[in-house]
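Supplementary Note 2. Why include the ligand at all?

Several targets in our set were suspected to adopt different conformations when bound, so apo predictions alone were not considered sufficient. For every target with a known small-molecule partner we therefore ran a joint prediction. The input for NDP is given below.
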Amino acid sequence: MSRIDGKAVAAKLRDEVAEKVEHFRRKVGRAPGLAVVLVGDDPASNVYVGAKGKATVEAGMESFTHRLPAATSEGELIRLVRRLNADEKVDGILVQLPLPDHIDADRVIDAIDPKKDVDGFHVINAGRLSVGQDALVPCTPYGCLHLLKQQLGDLSGKHAVVIGRSNIVGKPMAQLLLQENATVTIAHSRTRNLPELARSADILVAAVGRPEMVKADWIKPGATVIDVGINRLPPASEGEKGRLVGDVDFAGAESVAEAITPVPGGVGPMTIAMLLRNTLVAAYAREGLDAPG
Ligand code: NDP
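The joint prediction is reproduced in token form.
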């Protein structure tokens, strides 16, 4: 019955990254660099890109933000990605998703040098993760794993149910849990008897995008619950902003679970911390230095 404080864990992680950035700077004579590319003016993406740039600078790294108009063609975007691939000062490249409809996100991600793919979405990194080789791992599931290990220590033999099978969250989450020797079940929109399945989980990860779908009676007493969902409810009255909630009915679940991440303040802050960490790892690797640990 405790809340997992993602904000505090992320702050500690960001401090550790900042120390290692300093070490890198002394050794190599430059700071690690992260390039973030935004196409169009989606307000949520704009906020995320701003937050990523700010966090990068706070960690002592160099931030390069490229804001392109919504009408940018796929070819132009790919040419920018190739320039960033060749740029010695850039260790990490992140193209903010979603992209406008006329651009094929897969083709753009394919163009990123896998060694600079700090989002971990390139098929080379997805493949490396699935066969257990060193990879740049998608930031959100990597952050979830970090929280789970902090909370539980050894995950070996535990039954983990991951609800959601996206390439960004669900699938890499399942791979990471498998690597930790958990017994993993992946559920999705066609899964039968989901409440019953969820109730068999020692670790329940919800990455669906449906507000408060997971109810208290879906949770095994004593389970650890990681809520990845970020959903905005309709505003209670005009002129207000709707409340942010996760995929789990937090108020009900809190009394059943042993530990649970709140929304906001759980998984969200971990995503940016892991992006910084991935940029650091990419920078060390590009310079032929040992992994920063
Ligand atoms: P996607 O929409 O890509 O995937 C959602 C998954 O949920 C799909 O696999 C889908 O199944 C499954 N699903 C949908 N409805 C149901 C249902 N009724 N029962 C069981 N499974 C269902 O979303 P993402 O993975 O990108 O994101 C999931 C959530 O996490 C969103 O709320 C998003 O905002 C949030 N998010 C948060 C981040 C953070 O930093 N905290 C980062 C990334 C995402 P199927 O495959 O069968 O369609």
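The chain has two domains: 29-113, 139-268. The CA atoms of residues 51 and 272 lie 8 Å apart. Comparable summaries for the other entries are listed in the accompanying table.
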